[in-house]
Amino acid sequence: MSPFPQISPRILKGGLALIDVDSGRVVRLIALQYNPETLSRTLQAQAVGAEGNADRSQALRLKGPPVESYKLDAEIDAVDQLEEGDLLVGRLGIQPHLAALEMLVYPSIAQLRDHHAAAARGQLQISPVEAPLTLFIWSTSRVAPVRVTDFSITEEFFDTALNPIRAKVSLGMRVLSVSDLGFDHRGGSLYLRYQLGKERLAAMSAGVSPGLLGLKEIPT
Fold first, then answer.
1. DSSP label at 115?
2. How far apart are the C-alpha atoms of 154 and 171, rounded to whole Å?
3. CA-to-CA dists, residue 71 to 13, 101, 151, 175, 181, angstroms
4. In whole angstroms, what is the distance from residue 186 CA to residue 196 CA?
5. What is the spatial distance between Cα 172 and Cα 153, in angstroms, rounded to a whole number?
């Protein structure tokens, strides 16, 4: 037997944070119970002329950062908590966890009431309800401001009171860049930090010789 105990590495959780835009206060932190096995990302370049009205003189120009989207499927399961005697899970199943995720796409009741009161006072120009800033957190090098674009839940098993005890959550998110938020917005600053992390990682990537690509030199 080895004299040194085997220490399991700490596994970080992916999750989301809701931030008050004005104060920077963390409104809520949500950790995914189990990290998804896959994470899909798409990047759509914002090139000049991409809409079909191409201008040859603008062919290499970018209008801004790409439109980046994340897609993940997460599982939520109450089995472990039920075995440990968790009273809240025993009474409500995984409904609190699901509700915390669902609130990402709900305005608060207080906001709805304020909006209704403003309409009743005859205010013609009423701004849409503003939600807290959502951050998608996937390791220390990926903390991105996002907007939830699609959300679906499949509840699979229920207890005797019909509380869900297992579910699959599908979550789609669009990264909000400075093109969406502006440079002066708190989320814009967080986006710049996110992209800076990408640039630093790209700088760490080792270069290759032209011979690896079958060329003596890169034509210029």
1. H
2. 12
3. 16, 15, 10, 11, 21
4. 16
5. 12
User: Which residue ranges make up each domain of the chain?
Assistant: 15-41+62-108+129-201
Q: Work out whether strand 26-31 and strand 143-158 pair parallel, antiparallel, or are unpaired.
A: unpaired
Segment 61-75, tens digit of pLDDT: 888 999 999 999 999
Which of 125, 130, 124 shows the shortest CA–CA distance to 111? 130
In whole angstroms, give the CA distance from residue 42 to residue 66. Answer: 9
Structure tokens belonging to residue 210:
């032209």
pLDDT tens digit string along 41-59?
999 998 887 665 666 677 7
Lay out the sheet containing 164-175: strands in order across: 26-31, 15-19, 133-137, 143-158, 164-175, 62-77, 39-47
Count other Cβ atoms within 10 Å, centred on residue 114: 14
Residue 70 CA: distances (Å) to CA of 43, 91, 119: 9, 33, 36
Helix (H) or strand (E) holding 111: helix 109-120
| pLDDT given at position 6 | 63
Residues 197, 142 contacting (CB under 8 angstroms):
yes
**Among 64, 92, 89, 91, which residue's Cα sits nearest to residue 78?**
89
Spatial separation of the C-alpha atoms in residues 104 and 84, rounded to whole Å: 29
Rounded to whole angstroms, what are the CA distances from 13 to 30, 42, 128, 180? 10, 22, 33, 28
pTM of the model: 0.86
